[in-house]
Amino acid sequence: MAGCVLSGVGGLAVAMGEARTGVSARQVAMVCLDELVSEDDRYRRIDELVGGWGFVREAARPYYSEGVGRPSVDPTVLLKLMIAGALEGIGSMRELLRVAELRLDLRLFLGYGLGERLPAHQTISEAQTRRFADGEVFERLFLRTVALCQRHGLIEGSHLSVDGFHAEANAALGSLRASLEPLAGDAGGEGEEAPPPEPPRLWLAEPRSGPTPRLSSLRAVSDPQKSKRCARTG
Length: 234
Fold this sequence. Notes:
Blueprint: H1 33-36, H2 42-50, H3 54-60, H4 75-88, H5 93-102, H6 104-110, H7 121-131, H8 136-151, H9 215-222, H10 224-233
């Protein structure tokens, strides 16, 4: 093979690359964060769909003082963190901020440069639990989100879904009452028309009589093995 040099162990001879010792990583370079994030990034797409986040600041303006006190975190950043947490599947604000520290696309989405420090999770928690505790600003932002979805043809309003979950009730077992009601099909024969169903009725449980059981007796009922051991030692 003309123009090629063979190595001593067979194959083409290739020079070894320069050793990477990390010196270049410690060099100061002028870079643009916007150029490091791809054009098809999904957070760029969100910014394009929204068009401008000024409505967030207008909705949150009543919750801040005018020119008094230390400047707080931009409320737009708070909303964008909630969006990023939902898209990334991260429920912990601590973990989300750790990820955002390393992700260039999240830094660009939040509006923070490479050398800027992201807000502390205590600041985010204080804003969510104290400053916006009434929830009105989130309701206005939700309505704005629905309007944006309608504008871009993402929803049409022809189908409504309701979500829910089962939760264990904190009710006394002594207040439960069994109730049997006949089914609508069992009211008459085949040729008879079933009467219209009655509206649902509510029954109030009778007040419990007798002394209130002590906590120790309740524990004994919940753990019969422990109560037997206590009886033997007694």
